[in-house]
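Exercise 7. Given the components listed, write out the predicted structure of the assembled complex. Treat all entries as one system.
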Amino acid sequence: MTAPDTGLDPSNSPPGGDRPNAYIGRSVSRPNAKRLLAGRGRYVTDLVLPRMLHAAFLRSPYAHARILSIDTQAAKSMPGVRLIATGADLAKLCTPWTGTLAHFKGMKSSPQLPLPLDEVSWAGQAVVAVVAASRAEAEDAVEAITVEFEDLPILVDTDDARAPGAPTAAAEMADNICFHTKLDTGAVDEAFAAAAHVVEEEFRFGRHTAVTLEPRAIIADWDPGEGKLTVHHGTQTPYQFQDLYSRHYGISEANVRVVAPDIGGSFGMKLHVYHEDMAVVGLSLMLGRPVKYVADRIESFVSDIHARDHHIKARVALDAEGVILAMDVDDVTAIGPFSAYPRTSAVEGSQVIRLIGAPYRHEQYRAALTVVFQNKVQMSQYRAVGHPVACAVTERLVDLAAERIGCDPVLMRARNLIPDDAYPLKSPTGYAFEALSHEACLKRLKEMMGYEDLRAEQARLRDQGIYRGIGIASFVEITNPSPAFYGVGGARISAQDGAVVTVTPSGEVRCLISVTEQGQGTETMIGQIVAETLGVERERVRVITGDTEVTPHGGATWACRGAGIGGETALGAARKLKANILGLAAAILQSGPEALDMANDGIVDRAGGEQRMSLAELARIAYFRSDTLPPGTQAQLTVAHHYAPEGYPFAFTNGIQASYVELDGDTGFVKILKHWVVEDCGRIINPLLVDEQLRGGVVQGLGAAFFEECLYDRGGQLTNGSLADYLVPMACEMPDIAIDHIETPTRDTELGAKGCGEAGTAAASAAALNAVNDAMAPLGAKVAQIPMTPARLLQAMGRI
Amino acid sequence: MSDRVPMILTVNGEEIAATPRPRDTLADFLRQDLQLTGTHTGCEMGVCGACLVLAEDVPVHACLMFAVQAEGTRIETVEGLSERGAIADLQAAFHERNALQCGFCTPGMLVTAHGLLAKGGMPSREEIRDALSGNYCRCTGYEAIVDAVEAVARQRAAIKEEAARETAA
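Answer.
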């Protein structure tokens, strides 16, 4: 950690420093982790409710087919079976949903129902639901159901799907183009015509998926007596699902409660609508009993959203000194047979074309995005949406440009990165940057990795026939999204958050807040902010999240908003409560509120810091001896506060990563030796939590770079849908990751915090791609596809 | 398929008389019949390590063993290890180092770490990474887990050395 050197007005800084209870900026551990360490987590998979039944699904063996008939007769009489439901049964209860948003002009997608009426459009799609006394019995009964399918044309390849006259991946669509858009600053052709150098590359990014260790899990519990639906749901966004269950099942919002307890990983995957989850709600409505569904691992692979799947052609124009003049990009991405709901499957591509080139100074930019339907499982937002793709394209092109003009990659970046004193600035793709720190990050990275020495070591080893490579990748990350992200398109996805903070009768503090916890440390970070603001020990602050009946409505946790928006909400709420506390204390102490402050779990003199009364004493008087208060004094020891981001539509952050690898030219295996990250997420609330977000994110990016790919055969069958076949990064393959920070707080908030959750994933695969290319360069080989499997690298080197 | 099989086994030090179904895995039996939900299932094919428990003090995948195969054996889960304080130092180190996020892999990680450190000696970081290579974690990136296990290995080695010195003195 290094001291912040932001050049910003110190009045923008929150309180902190050496004061007692100064928690903001300190590495503190997570109180709620102790429960998990003792095996006492309460995940949805663990929950058992009285009279609970279990659902299993018959799934389509075909990637595209018409359903001719469904015979459930034999299954109905199987032991333990309570209900068998088809698409037609659930369509009577649930209105269809369509994954389009108004700000994606011309976007189309077919309406979806929990289970299909007459057509399946990917292999693994749920077709019939069985509810039984146990999961095993439900699965037994699934085996006894007969469905007659008729083959329909299967579109696996993206280019086949977009060819003129191609059959459609979904019957209701006129063609397979979900969405098409263009960006153009207007003079790209002129810039390329005038360029001294043009470099270009064609990139392919495979599909991968979240592989949360706890699969998707849901228990829907319809109480017909009260007309109330309670859903225990492994999700990051309980409020969004409260709204969706309410509207699609016609239950008043007040009668829908969504509880998100401990969640075994999410990473964006658990905020989309899944057919099975919607079906389970309907099954509970039909039965008036709790129904549980937990995806098994194979079901996860064939029904969780997949991510990426881009084919990109890109070129960059440079002047004779290697200054970037313009970029020209064509991105084709395939998303499955329909667009995901409610966030759509166009956001990833949209962010790809807007983030390409983002760290660099150039005026001309043109991009086309085509989003294509095909017969694979739905593709949508997963950690670092679009960032890793944009970063890999940009950074590989920068390295190719450096190579072309014979310039060191670090020098090339120093020459082209947006200078730290150039802000505020609007990017050619329309993003407004408040303040970024690319130059400072590059400088810090170079020092941290000992760049010159590393290059010398690399050269020495090359002489010995050892091929090592160094790869660098700058990035820009989108955080703290305003309603410009989803709200403007008509999605009921909140950009604001809410908090309710209370002093309890014992003088402890309780904070109910809408941001949610999946292990990243949300509750800890909120507790730090509240405790510091109220001058109490953080052990006296209880933070509660993830229950729509308890916590205020808010966006919850996605796209990097927990600290930046949730943290600001908690700060505002705690300040409001502090004002009430001081007002009450002033009345009790016959002082002025401005003469008082809070520290050490009590009220102190602002001037001398002398303790005047404990918070416990104040609470005792307020709750039990209001008769002793001056007449007209009504203690308000609970406050509610909402905060929605204002100012910049997004708080952009930035950083840089480097990867050091060794390539075995005979086997194509790559050993990842070391990885470095310098990141700027503004005000850091808890360095321990931030660093672990970065490390976890980096490893997800390295997984994409080297191992992870959802492989389909020509019939649209996923051929590696198990953890034995789909490779995820494990401890033995991953390097130690060195991390440092620059802190440029946003001035849009009091707290100054931006997000860091995507940063690791955003650039790790780009750094790795550059590192492998650097290692292969002496062999005259190059690669522009991830994952970089040994077979692909051997092919690139001409060995196979 | 559903005929239940009576059996006796010891789980976390308690003798249990149970009647699992022949097809129940040990993992499902522990989670559903005994409500020991600290043992998790992530892949149900012995790859992810979330279901690791000790059978006769040896880490085994509870998803790859049928419950009936545990007849007459001593099984210990993360709950048992926690309650008898056997992994208190590991839990403290994981907590301090933030070597967990969602916590779903954590019981399995602790069982693997316990098994590794029970062998004695001071494993290198590479050896720790190798030992953990059957435990999948999507959240942490592993480094914090390696740090925590390494810290406990050092602590235990120091305690052992201290004890040896005292004995010698």
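Discussion: The longest helix of chain A spans residues 562-589. Residues 448 and 483 of chain A are 38 Å apart (CA to CA).
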